[in-house]
Amino acid sequence: MFAVDPVNHHIDEQIQHKINQKTKPLGALGLLETLAKQIAQVQFAKQFNGRHKLSIKEPAMLVFAGDHGIAAHGVSIAPSEVTKQMVANFASGGAAINVFCRQMGLNLEVIDCGMLTPSDHPSVTNHRLGSGTQAIHQKPAMSLLSVKDGFSYANEVVQRHYDSGCNLIALGEMGIGNTSSAAAVMAALLKLDIKDCVGRGTGINDEAFALKTELLTVAMNLHRNNLNDPVNVLACLGGFEIVQMTGAILAAAEKRMLVVIDGFIATAAALAAVALHPDARGYLIFAHQSDEQGHIKMLQALDAQPILSLGLRLGEGTGAALALPIIQSAVNFYNDMASFENAGVSNVV
Protein backbone atom coordinates (compact mmCIF):
# COMPACT_ATOMS: atom_id res chain seq x y z
CA MET A 1 0.00 0.00 0.00
CA PHE A 2 2.90 2.35 0.71
CA ALA A 3 6.01 3.05 -1.38
CA VAL A 4 8.80 4.33 0.85
CA ASP A 5 12.04 5.57 -0.68
CA PRO A 6 15.25 5.61 1.35
CA VAL A 7 16.49 8.95 2.63
CA ASN A 8 19.30 10.52 0.59
CA HIS A 9 22.58 9.07 1.82
CA HIS A 10 24.41 10.23 -1.32
CA ILE A 11 24.85 13.66 0.27
CA ASP A 12 26.18 12.45 3.62
CA GLU A 13 29.72 13.68 2.98
CA GLN A 14 28.63 17.16 1.89
CA ILE A 15 26.20 17.54 4.80
CA GLN A 16 28.79 16.42 7.32
CA HIS A 17 31.35 18.81 5.84
CA LYS A 18 28.93 21.73 6.19
CA ILE A 19 28.22 20.80 9.81
CA ASN A 20 31.94 20.39 10.54
CA GLN A 21 32.67 23.87 9.15
CA LYS A 22 30.40 25.59 11.68
CA THR A 23 32.23 27.65 14.30
CA LYS A 24 32.63 24.90 16.88
CA PRO A 25 34.88 21.93 17.60
CA LEU A 26 34.04 18.73 15.74
CA GLY A 27 30.98 17.06 17.23
CA ALA A 28 30.56 19.72 19.90
CA LEU A 29 26.80 19.98 19.35
CA GLY A 30 26.37 16.26 19.89
CA LEU A 31 22.96 14.86 19.02
CA LEU A 32 21.94 18.15 17.39
CA GLU A 33 24.48 17.42 14.65
CA THR A 34 23.05 13.93 14.12
CA LEU A 35 19.54 15.37 13.91
CA ALA A 36 20.55 18.07 11.44
CA LYS A 37 22.21 15.49 9.20
CA GLN A 38 19.14 13.24 9.32
CA ILE A 39 16.77 16.11 8.53
CA ALA A 40 18.98 17.07 5.58
CA GLN A 41 18.91 13.48 4.31
CA VAL A 42 15.11 13.63 4.35
CA GLN A 43 14.63 17.13 2.94
CA PHE A 44 17.38 17.25 0.31
CA ALA A 45 15.88 14.45 -1.74
CA LYS A 46 17.78 14.89 -5.01
CA GLN A 47 21.06 16.68 -4.43
CA PHE A 48 22.99 18.85 -2.03
CA ASN A 49 22.94 22.62 -2.38
CA GLY A 50 24.82 24.48 0.31
CA ARG A 51 22.35 27.38 0.11
CA HIS A 52 19.27 25.23 0.78
CA LYS A 53 17.88 25.47 4.29
CA LEU A 54 16.24 22.93 6.55
CA SER A 55 12.72 23.65 7.75
CA ILE A 56 9.97 22.58 10.11
CA LYS A 57 6.64 23.65 8.61
CA GLU A 58 3.17 23.41 10.15
CA PRO A 59 4.15 20.60 12.58
CA ALA A 60 1.24 18.44 13.68
CA MET A 61 0.63 16.24 16.71
CA LEU A 62 -1.63 13.28 15.90
CA VAL A 63 -3.05 11.53 18.95
CA PHE A 64 -4.66 8.16 18.16
CA ALA A 65 -7.12 6.70 20.68
CA GLY A 66 -8.54 3.20 20.98
CA ASP A 67 -9.72 0.66 23.54
CA HIS A 68 -8.41 -2.84 24.21
CA GLY A 69 -10.37 -5.95 25.13
CA ILE A 70 -7.66 -7.14 27.50
CA ALA A 71 -8.22 -4.03 29.67
CA ALA A 72 -11.36 -5.66 31.07
CA HIS A 73 -9.23 -8.42 32.62
CA GLY A 74 -7.33 -6.49 35.28
CA VAL A 75 -4.15 -5.40 33.50
CA SER A 76 -4.52 -1.66 34.19
CA ILE A 77 -5.20 0.65 37.12
CA ALA A 78 -8.00 2.35 35.17
CA PRO A 79 -11.16 1.10 33.43
CA SER A 80 -11.57 1.50 29.67
CA GLU A 81 -14.04 4.35 30.20
CA VAL A 82 -11.06 6.56 31.02
CA THR A 83 -9.98 6.44 27.35
CA LYS A 84 -13.08 8.35 26.27
CA GLN A 85 -12.87 10.64 29.29
CA MET A 86 -9.30 11.58 28.42
CA VAL A 87 -10.21 12.12 24.77
CA ALA A 88 -12.88 14.54 25.98
CA ASN A 89 -10.16 16.23 28.04
CA PHE A 90 -8.00 16.51 24.92
CA ALA A 91 -10.92 17.97 22.99
CA SER A 92 -11.55 20.59 25.67
CA GLY A 93 -7.86 21.53 25.88
CA GLY A 94 -7.12 20.42 29.45
CA ALA A 95 -4.58 17.61 29.17
CA ALA A 96 -0.79 17.69 29.30
CA ILE A 97 -0.57 17.23 25.54
CA ASN A 98 -2.75 20.31 25.01
CA VAL A 99 -0.51 22.39 27.27
CA PHE A 100 2.64 21.30 25.45
CA CYS A 101 1.15 21.62 21.95
CA ARG A 102 0.10 25.19 22.71
CA GLN A 103 3.56 25.93 24.08
CA MET A 104 5.40 24.37 21.13
CA GLY A 105 3.11 25.58 18.34
CA LEU A 106 1.95 22.10 17.35
CA ASN A 107 -1.36 21.62 15.55
CA LEU A 108 -3.19 18.93 17.54
CA GLU A 109 -5.57 16.41 16.00
CA VAL A 110 -7.22 13.67 18.05
CA ILE A 111 -8.43 10.56 16.22
CA ASP A 112 -10.94 8.04 17.58
CA CYS A 113 -9.60 4.78 16.16
CA GLY A 114 -12.06 2.62 18.07
CA MET A 115 -12.97 3.47 21.63
CA LEU A 116 -15.68 1.47 23.37
CA THR A 117 -18.12 4.30 22.67
CA PRO A 118 -17.65 7.02 20.05
CA SER A 119 -16.62 10.54 20.91
CA ASP A 120 -19.36 13.09 20.41
CA HIS A 121 -16.97 16.05 20.23
CA PRO A 122 -16.88 17.68 16.76
CA SER A 123 -13.10 18.23 16.88
CA VAL A 124 -12.35 14.50 17.27
CA THR A 125 -11.78 12.72 13.95
CA ASN A 126 -13.93 9.60 13.55
CA HIS A 127 -11.78 6.82 12.10
CA ARG A 128 -13.27 4.00 14.12
CA LEU A 129 -12.37 0.41 13.33
CA GLY A 130 -14.73 -0.96 15.98
CA SER A 131 -15.70 -0.58 19.62
CA GLY A 132 -12.40 -1.72 21.08
CA THR A 133 -10.31 -4.72 20.08
CA GLN A 134 -10.94 -8.28 21.17
CA ALA A 135 -9.07 -9.55 24.25
CA ILE A 136 -5.82 -10.79 22.72
CA HIS A 137 -5.42 -13.68 25.17
CA GLN A 138 -8.73 -15.09 23.90
CA LYS A 139 -8.83 -14.34 20.16
CA PRO A 140 -7.19 -12.09 17.54
CA ALA A 141 -7.43 -8.39 18.32
CA MET A 142 -8.94 -7.62 14.90
CA SER A 143 -9.28 -8.85 11.35
CA LEU A 144 -6.74 -8.37 8.58
CA LEU A 145 -9.30 -6.13 6.89
CA SER A 146 -9.29 -3.86 9.95
CA VAL A 147 -5.52 -3.48 9.65
CA LYS A 148 -5.91 -2.52 5.99
CA ASP A 149 -8.70 -0.07 6.80
CA GLY A 150 -6.61 1.41 9.60
CA PHE A 151 -3.74 2.05 7.19
CA SER A 152 -6.16 3.76 4.79
CA TYR A 153 -7.53 6.00 7.55
CA ALA A 154 -3.99 6.93 8.61
CA ASN A 155 -3.01 7.78 5.06
CA GLU A 156 -6.04 10.06 4.83
CA VAL A 157 -5.03 11.97 7.98
CA VAL A 158 -1.41 12.37 6.93
CA GLN A 159 -2.36 13.42 3.39
CA ARG A 160 -4.58 16.16 4.79
CA HIS A 161 -1.77 17.59 6.90
CA TYR A 162 0.72 17.24 4.05
CA ASP A 163 -1.61 19.16 1.76
CA SER A 164 -1.75 21.99 4.33
CA GLY A 165 2.05 22.37 4.17
CA CYS A 166 3.06 20.13 7.09
CA ASN A 167 6.45 18.41 6.81
CA LEU A 168 6.67 16.94 10.33
CA ILE A 169 4.18 14.88 12.29
CA ALA A 170 4.50 13.73 15.89
CA LEU A 171 2.66 10.67 17.14
CA GLY A 172 0.85 10.19 20.43
CA GLU A 173 -1.80 7.81 21.73
CA MET A 174 -4.43 7.15 24.35
CA GLY A 175 -5.86 3.76 25.22
CA ILE A 176 -6.30 1.97 28.53
CA GLY A 177 -4.54 -1.39 28.21
CA ASN A 178 -2.36 -0.40 25.27
CA THR A 179 0.95 -1.17 26.99
CA SER A 180 -0.22 -4.81 26.99
CA SER A 181 -0.78 -4.74 23.25
CA ALA A 182 2.48 -2.89 22.59
CA ALA A 183 4.46 -5.38 24.70
CA ALA A 184 2.95 -8.29 22.76
CA VAL A 185 3.70 -6.64 19.40
CA MET A 186 7.25 -6.00 20.58
CA ALA A 187 7.74 -9.61 21.69
CA ALA A 188 6.42 -10.95 18.39
CA LEU A 189 8.45 -8.64 16.13
CA LEU A 190 11.71 -8.92 18.08
CA LYS A 191 11.32 -12.62 18.92
CA LEU A 192 11.66 -11.96 22.64
CA ASP A 193 10.14 -13.61 25.67
CA ILE A 194 7.11 -11.61 26.80
CA LYS A 195 8.67 -11.28 30.27
CA ASP A 196 11.38 -9.09 28.70
CA CYS A 197 8.78 -6.78 27.18
CA VAL A 198 5.92 -6.34 29.63
CA GLY A 199 5.99 -3.41 32.05
CA ARG A 200 3.83 -1.72 34.66
CA GLY A 201 2.08 0.74 32.33
CA THR A 202 0.51 3.51 34.35
CA GLY A 203 1.72 1.96 37.61
CA ILE A 204 0.03 -1.37 38.38
CA ASN A 205 0.88 -3.24 41.57
CA ASP A 206 2.71 -6.56 41.82
CA GLU A 207 -0.46 -8.65 41.65
CA ALA A 208 -1.74 -6.91 38.52
CA PHE A 209 1.72 -7.08 36.95
CA ALA A 210 1.83 -10.85 37.48
CA LEU A 211 -1.65 -11.18 35.94
CA LYS A 212 -0.67 -9.00 32.98
CA THR A 213 2.41 -11.14 32.35
CA GLU A 214 0.33 -14.32 32.62
CA LEU A 215 -2.35 -13.13 30.18
CA LEU A 216 0.21 -11.92 27.66
CA THR A 217 2.01 -15.26 27.88
CA VAL A 218 -1.31 -16.93 27.04
CA ALA A 219 -1.78 -14.50 24.14
CA MET A 220 1.66 -15.22 22.68
CA ASN A 221 1.07 -18.97 22.86
CA LEU A 222 -2.42 -18.65 21.39
CA HIS A 223 -1.25 -16.76 18.30
CA ARG A 224 2.23 -18.20 17.95
CA ASN A 225 1.59 -19.91 14.61
CA ASN A 226 0.14 -16.76 13.03
CA LEU A 227 2.86 -14.27 13.92
CA ASN A 228 4.70 -14.74 10.63
CA ASP A 229 4.58 -11.19 9.28
CA PRO A 230 4.00 -7.68 10.67
CA VAL A 231 0.42 -7.36 9.40
CA ASN A 232 -0.58 -10.61 11.09
CA VAL A 233 1.19 -9.48 14.27
CA LEU A 234 -0.90 -6.30 14.27
CA ALA A 235 -4.11 -8.23 13.58
CA CYS A 236 -3.47 -10.77 16.34
CA LEU A 237 -1.94 -8.56 19.02
CA GLY A 238 -2.25 -4.90 18.06
CA GLY A 239 -4.58 -2.08 18.95
CA PHE A 240 -6.63 0.07 16.62
CA GLU A 241 -4.48 3.07 17.57
CA ILE A 242 -1.23 1.12 17.08
CA VAL A 243 -2.37 0.07 13.60
CA GLN A 244 -3.20 3.64 12.61
CA MET A 245 0.09 4.97 14.02
CA THR A 246 1.90 2.34 11.94
CA GLY A 247 0.01 3.50 8.87
CA ALA A 248 0.73 7.15 9.69
CA ILE A 249 4.47 6.45 9.86
CA LEU A 250 4.45 4.77 6.47
CA ALA A 251 2.22 7.41 4.88
CA ALA A 252 4.48 10.20 6.16
CA ALA A 253 7.67 8.45 5.06
CA GLU A 254 6.17 7.96 1.61
CA LYS A 255 5.73 11.76 1.45
CA ARG A 256 9.26 12.41 2.81
CA MET A 257 7.95 13.89 6.05
CA LEU A 258 9.74 13.65 9.39
CA VAL A 259 8.01 11.56 12.06
CA VAL A 260 8.63 12.14 15.77
CA ILE A 261 7.99 8.98 17.77
CA ASP A 262 6.81 9.36 21.37
CA GLY A 263 7.19 6.54 23.89
CA PHE A 264 6.62 2.82 24.30
CA ILE A 265 3.35 2.50 22.37
CA ALA A 266 4.41 4.69 19.45
CA THR A 267 7.74 2.84 19.28
CA ALA A 268 5.86 -0.47 18.94
CA ALA A 269 4.13 1.07 15.92
CA ALA A 270 7.53 2.18 14.63
CA LEU A 271 8.81 -1.41 14.96
CA ALA A 272 5.89 -2.63 12.86
CA ALA A 273 6.35 0.11 10.26
CA VAL A 274 10.08 -0.58 9.89
CA ALA A 275 9.40 -4.32 9.70
CA LEU A 276 7.05 -3.63 6.78
CA HIS A 277 9.28 -1.03 5.08
CA PRO A 278 12.85 -0.88 6.45
CA ASP A 279 13.54 2.39 4.60
CA ALA A 280 10.97 4.11 6.83
CA ARG A 281 13.55 4.10 9.63
CA GLY A 282 15.40 7.06 8.11
CA TYR A 283 12.39 9.35 8.62
CA LEU A 284 11.96 8.60 12.33
CA ILE A 285 13.14 10.80 15.19
CA PHE A 286 12.79 9.23 18.65
CA ALA A 287 11.71 11.77 21.23
CA HIS A 288 12.52 10.11 24.54
CA GLN A 289 13.22 6.95 26.49
CA SER A 290 10.23 6.17 28.66
CA ASP A 291 10.16 4.44 32.03
CA GLU A 292 8.42 1.39 30.53
CA GLN A 293 10.98 -1.40 30.97
CA GLY A 294 10.81 -2.75 27.41
CA HIS A 295 11.30 0.60 25.72
CA ILE A 296 15.08 0.61 25.81
CA LYS A 297 15.13 -2.77 24.05
CA MET A 298 12.90 -1.44 21.28
CA LEU A 299 15.10 1.63 20.86
CA GLN A 300 18.18 -0.56 20.66
CA ALA A 301 16.54 -2.78 18.05
CA LEU A 302 15.82 0.30 15.95
CA ASP A 303 19.33 1.72 16.50
CA ALA A 304 17.65 4.80 17.93
CA GLN A 305 19.19 7.45 20.18
CA PRO A 306 16.34 9.20 21.99
CA ILE A 307 16.55 12.96 22.46
CA LEU A 308 15.25 13.10 26.03
CA SER A 309 15.23 10.93 29.14
CA LEU A 310 12.89 12.54 31.64
CA GLY A 311 11.29 9.54 33.32
CA LEU A 312 8.09 10.09 31.34
CA ARG A 313 5.37 7.42 31.21
CA LEU A 314 2.28 9.43 30.33
CA GLY A 315 1.91 8.86 26.61
CA GLU A 316 -0.39 11.25 24.73
CA GLY A 317 2.60 12.35 22.63
CA THR A 318 3.96 14.44 25.50
CA GLY A 319 7.59 13.39 24.99
CA ALA A 320 7.34 14.06 21.26
CA ALA A 321 5.99 17.56 21.91
CA LEU A 322 8.76 18.31 24.40
CA ALA A 323 11.41 17.19 21.89
CA LEU A 324 10.25 19.60 19.19
CA PRO A 325 12.30 22.64 20.36
CA ILE A 326 15.46 20.53 20.26
CA ILE A 327 14.64 19.37 16.72
CA GLN A 328 14.07 23.01 15.78
CA SER A 329 17.42 23.91 17.35
CA ALA A 330 19.12 21.38 15.07
CA VAL A 331 17.45 23.06 12.09
CA ASN A 332 18.42 26.53 13.27
CA PHE A 333 22.10 25.87 13.91
CA TYR A 334 22.41 24.23 10.50
CA ASN A 335 20.73 27.17 8.79
CA ASP A 336 22.08 30.16 10.71
CA MET A 337 25.34 29.33 12.46
CA ALA A 338 28.36 30.90 10.75
CA SER A 339 31.14 28.88 9.19
CA PHE A 340 34.77 29.40 10.14
CA GLU A 341 35.37 31.13 6.81
CA ASN A 342 32.37 33.47 7.04
CA ALA A 343 33.06 34.41 10.66
CA GLY A 344 36.78 34.92 10.21
CA VAL A 345 37.53 32.39 12.92
CA SER A 346 40.53 30.10 12.75
CA ASN A 347 39.43 26.60 11.79
CA VAL A 348 39.94 24.23 14.70
CA VAL A 349 39.06 21.12 12.72
From TrEMBL:
Read off the Pfam families from this record. DBI_PRT (PF02277)
List the EC numbers from the record.
2.4.2.21
Q: Which GO terms describe its molecular function?
A: nicotinate-nucleotide-dimethylbenzimidazole phosphoribosyltransferase activity
CDD domains, per the entry: DMB-PRT_CobT
Pathway participation: Nucleoside biosynthesis; alpha-ribazole biosynthesis; alpha-ribazole from 5,6-dimethylbenzimidazole: step 1/2
Q: Which UniProt keywords apply?
A: Cobalamin biosynthesis, Glycosyltransferase, Transferase
Please give the catalytic activity noted in the UniProt record. 5,6-dimethylbenzimidazole + nicotinate beta-D-ribonucleotide = alpha-ribazole 5'-phosphate + nicotinate + H(+)
Which of the seven top EC classes does this enzyme belong to? transferase
Annotated active site: 316 (proton acceptor)
Top-level taxon of origin:
Bacteria
NCBIfam families associated with the record: cobT_DBIPRT, PRK00105.1
Family the entry assigns: Belongs to the CobT family.
Q: Which HAMAP family match?
A: CobT
Biological function: Catalyzes the synthesis of alpha-ribazole-5'-phosphate from nicotinate mononucleotide (NAMN) and 5,6-dimethylbenzimidazole (DMB).
State what protein this is by name.
Nicotinate-nucleotide--dimethylbenzimidazole phosphoribosyltransferase
Q: Which gene encodes it?
A: cobT
